[in-house]
Structure prediction request, 259 residues.
Amino acid sequence: MGWVLITGASEGLGREFAQLAAADGHMLILSARRTELLEAVAADLSGRFGVEALVLPADLSVEGEAEKLWARAVAGGREISILVNNAGLAAGGGFADPALWAREYASVMVNVLSATVLMKAAAVEMAQRGQGRILNVASAAAFMPGPGMAVYHATKAYLLSLSEAAAAELAPAGVTVTALCPGATRTDFFRAGGFADETLIQRLPMPTAQSVAAAGWTAMKRGRRITVTGIDNRIFAFLPRLVPRRLVTFVAGQFLRRR
Ligand SMILES: NC(=O)c1ccc[n+]([C@@H]2O[C@H](COP(=O)([O-])OP(=O)(O)OC[C@H]3O[C@@H](n4cnc5c(N)ncnc54)[C@H](OP(=O)(O)O)[C@@H]3O)[C@@H](O)[C@H]2O)c1
Prediction:
């Protein structure tokens, strides 16, 4: 079995993907910024599942870091058989708020640019080998604009679009691309994004990171192109096809508005 490269593996969904990969017997390359957390995940999983686990810290909001991460990951002839583009972040608040820019910028760098760099590098090598799997963690947010989290929704719409096109292109080469589109999930995501507990979306019951990651991992193994987790999110992903876009934007904004 080859290596699985997982970004954002220090906590939340990424840590769950690492566990699923280890349980399947894969060797792990774990990346994020917080080295101590990554080391703890690596030690835990190699101890429990007997797999090799390599920690490669990287700040994917910094230009050039994704290229360096890939180069370190494949150094010495390591073959990445699965790429999990999971690292991601949001900035909660109004688009005209200048205080949000640093985090909005980071979210474009991590969710869009670095994810694309890693996906491109993986696609080139996997297509040459005639096999490989890419799992991109998009979001149900990809299906609609999100006033109150505008940049984040736009980044996930990009990632979904790229995933679908690449999936179609790469299928004949034996490479699958899966976009996982979860709704709000119980992780540190909202706190990290600067949301106080005052938006409607945070009051809804949220599935665990474990269940969402498991759904994504299964979909990736089956080579599915898109998987939206939860019946409520599937409805929200489908409705924008039927309803005027302005109304879709208004409704999404109600879920993200501070109360
Ligand atoms: N939770 C939700 O409601 C939800 C819903 C739909 C989609 N998603 C998506 O799911 C993915 C995982 O999020 P999560 O819910 O597990 O959130 P989380 O618990 O906040 O985890 C985010 C992960 O991304 C990493 N990360 C953040 N900034 C980074 C940077 N600059 N460079 C490298 N890594 C960075 C973090 O590691 P470090 O801080 O150690 O760098 C962490 O491991 C994201 O793409 C998110 O957009 C989440």
